[in-house]
Structure formats: structure tokens, C-alpha cells
Amino acid sequence: MQITINRKTGVLAPATAGILATVGVGWAAIPGDDGQIKGCYATTSGLLGIAHSKGDTRVVDSAEACRSYEKPLSWNQQGPKGDRGPQGPQGGYGADGAPCPPAEAACVGPKGDSGAVDIKTSSGSLTQPPGDEGYPTTFAFARPAQLVTVAERQAVLGVSSMSIRIPVDNRQLGLRYAICSRTDAAGALRTWGELFSWYGDPSQNNSMTTHALLALTPGRYEIGPCVAAEHANLFDFAGSTSSTSLLLVDGG
After folding, report:
1. pTM score, two decimals?
2. Cα 215 from Cα 223, distance rounded (Å)
3. Pair 178, 139: CB distance under 8 Å
4. I want to staple 70 with a disulfide (CB 3.0 to 4.6 A). Which of 11, 66, 186, 215 is the partner?
5. Is residue 146 part of a domain?
């Protein structure tokens, strides 16, 4: 089967009507198995035999040979892949999904590690420290220390406040306040969150609040508020107040 296109008129040849009547058969091999469409074009003009003009082109079955005055040509039914088009505009936000029912096992995550492991609190009057003649350097627990056992990957969050005054006139005395820790009764005190203030007005109580995260290695510790005071005997420790909270936290 063939389809002939006249080069001059660009229309199908008269024989096309018969071809269309049997199109189900004629097009079975167009294109061929390799996806190519086979054609033949006339290189001369002639009136004998089959009338034709130079340049006439016809589509033929893949197995059909071109005539003596024709040359073969072929092309693909599908052209080459085009360039990628520009990116389209961003789409809108999608609707929120349905909430996950708590009864579904997949909706419940694993239980998290506990945060606070233990809480210890202490409040009351301060105990007078030894005292220094000049700038205060000798720290001592101002309240009875609390025993805290720290395990691996645990820390202690301490918050402590105190209010104190000096009952004498015309003196300016220094005082340092902190949270202290030590491993045993004879060990040296280690200070955390240390503060310093001058005291000189006998009519007022000065207050200080400190907080610190005690990053301690595993072990057993004495922890509590501590004071270093200049001329400690001139402070009214008995009439002062202090409050301390120790929170043992688990780092997970």
C-alpha cells in the first residue's frame, strides 16, 4: 500500500480513495518495526508507465522497494526530545492531615527519659562563716549541706537566695555568696554561680540569688549555700534567711 503526495499540488493522488478503503491493511507496516516511516521520492518526471513529477513523494510499507526513478528516504514518527520547559509557579500549601488517633500503636512514640530525678530543699537562718580581715576568700557552708548522689549522665541544678544586713554604721564590708560542693567532710569547697556584693547600710537587707548547673562526675556530694565574708562577726547572720533548692536531673 502507498500514499502519494503530489509535489506541486500537495494533495493525495486519485488512487488514495482505494487505499483508504483498505487502510486497516495498508497501514499495518507504517511505521515499521524499528519505528521509522519509509518513503520514496521521484528524481525525474515522466508520463510513461505511472505518471509522476520530479519531487513527488509517497509513503510506502516498510518492506516495499522504491521504483527505478525514485530514491528512498525515511524519518521517525516521533521527533527528538525537546528542551525542558520553565519551572511552573509554586503550588499552595496542602490541607492538614487528620490527627493520629492515640489508640493507634503507630501514633504513640517511645517513652522519654525522665527529667527530674530528685529534689532537695533547705531554708532557714544562715550560719556565720569564719570570716576574713580583708577581701573575703574563706568559704564555708552557710546552711547544713545536703547529700546528693550523682550517677552517670546526671547533673544538679541549684538555685539559692539569701537576705542579710550589717547592724553597724559607717562600715562597708564585702560578702561572696555561692552554691558549694565537696566530696567529703574534709574536702575543699568548690563554688558554683558565685556572686559578690558590698554591704554598708544598716537599715536595709541586701538580697542575692544565684543559680548554677553543677556538672559533677558520678559520686556522692555535700551541696549547699556557702558564704565568704569580710569581718563575718559584723554581719547579722542569725537574723538572715536563706532558701536553696537542688534539682537532680537526668541527661538521658
Report:
1. 0.54
2. 12
3. yes
4. 66
5. yes
pLDDT score for 5: 53
* Domain housing 65: 2-76
Q: Tell me how far apart the alpha carbons of residues 46 and 35 are, in angstroms, rounded to a whole number.
A: 32
Q: Is the pLDDT of residue 245 over 50?
A: yes
Whole-number Å distance between alpha carbons of 140 and 228: 7
The amino acid at 197: S
- 60-89 tens-digit pLDDT: 888 888 988 899 988 876 767 888 889 989
- Could you tell me if 169 and 217 lie in one domain? yes
Q: Is the pLDDT of residue 162 over 70?
A: yes
User: Pick from 175, 176, 145: which is nearest to 246 by CA?
Assistant: 145
Dmax over CA atoms of the chain, in Å, equals 140
Dist. CA 240–CA 230, nearest whole Å: 16
| Concatenated DSSP letters of 100-146 | PPTTSGGGSPPPPPPSEEEEEEEEEPPPPP--BSSS----EESS--E
Total domains in the chain come to 2
Model confidence at 21, pLDDT cuts 50, 70, 90, reads very low
